[in-house]
Amino acid sequence: MDLYSQKLAENLDIPKTYTDVYQRIREELSISWFSREALKAIPRDWNFTRRLNKLKGIIHLPNQHFGRYGNFLKIPYIITVHDLIRYLDLEGCLTYIHRPNRRDRFYLNLDYKGIRKATKIIAVSQATKKDLMHHLKIPDEQITVTHLGIDHTAFKPLANPSRFEYPYILFVGSEHPRKNLSTLLKAFKKLKEQLRFKDLKLVKVGKAGGPEANYREQTTQVINSLNLEGKVAFTELVSVEDLRAYYCSAECFVFPSLYEGFGFPPLEAMACGCPVISSDSSSLPEVLGEAAIKVSPHDIEGLVGALEKVLTNRDLREDLIAKGALQAAKFSWQQTAKKTLEIYKEVERNFS
Question: Is the domain covering 168-328 a CATH 3.40.50.2000 domain?
């Protein structure tokens, strides 16, 4: 969501307001109502709301967690909703990240109230729009879908990629429950039972997750239970240049996620010439089209079979790489910015 704000700011010649409010919101998840951080947040939020109300024109709030401020705005605003993951955690449907505490529940309810109040809602996928209509009962005409983009100057094939001395499959993302890394680990264990894959490793790029829970400990427990010690390599956050190298030198990229509002990593992998295996859940079929092998996120045997095919069938790999390049080319930040500007003009016309 930070990247979305950054790329829109770079590609739109309009007035902009800079703030670190969202980073602070993220850092304050799961804190107590009576903590020092929670008490400091109250005047900060009040001052930020006053600052927004002094702006002229129509405001674009770039992610759903700014909805809490929308409740107190006297001016029309547009809001972008990337997903309803926290809403589903709030309602207890499933645990995708973490069950919110009382303070988080209060603010999340404000977020979703603020979304409903928005003049226009931008959803980053048809899947997110469907969720907004189903869970928040928002009418179709209030929502416009604008897909996100990827940076094609950063993500593209390397001539001689070489990241490790061993072959590896790649996973990029957090270790939140919704990312479904445990299913990939179980499939990887079964794959490793075949002698031909004895040198293969799994590389996991990205932070474990936020402060809500010890996600790395949970992942380590799964690895130990499967006797995969030494066969899974972890990195924390890496530079864009290093991430490109990880994509380019991987045997394949695997993304078994249960829920994605959009899903950057598989598109980035495609742009780098890496064949992709993905789950068939939420927005992923919409975003990836026919350029990835898709399996049910709970189908361990199906994932093993897909991995075997991609790792051993050269023709299939080349087909996936070619289709992936074409699919990734459909998504750019310039296009996202252009469509977003059209929404601004539409809303402005309605208020002129």
Answer: yes
Which CATH number is 2-149+333-350's, of 3.10.290.10, 3.20.20.70, 2.40.50.140, 3.40.50.2000? 3.40.50.2000
Q: Does position 163 have pLDDT exceeding 80, yes or no? A: no
Answer yes or no: is pLDDT of 174 > 80: yes
Q: What share of the chain is helix, strand, coil (3-state, %, to 5)?
A: 50, 10, 40
204 pLDDT above the threshold of 70: yes
Sign of CA dihedral 244, 246, 251, 253: negative
pLDDT at residue 161 tops 80: no
At 233, give phi and psi (nearest 5°).
-110, 135
Question: Please, what is the angle between helix 314-328 and helix 264-271, to 10°?
Answer: 110
Percent share of the chain, pLDDT over 90: 85
- Residue 203 pairs in a beta bridge with 170, 233
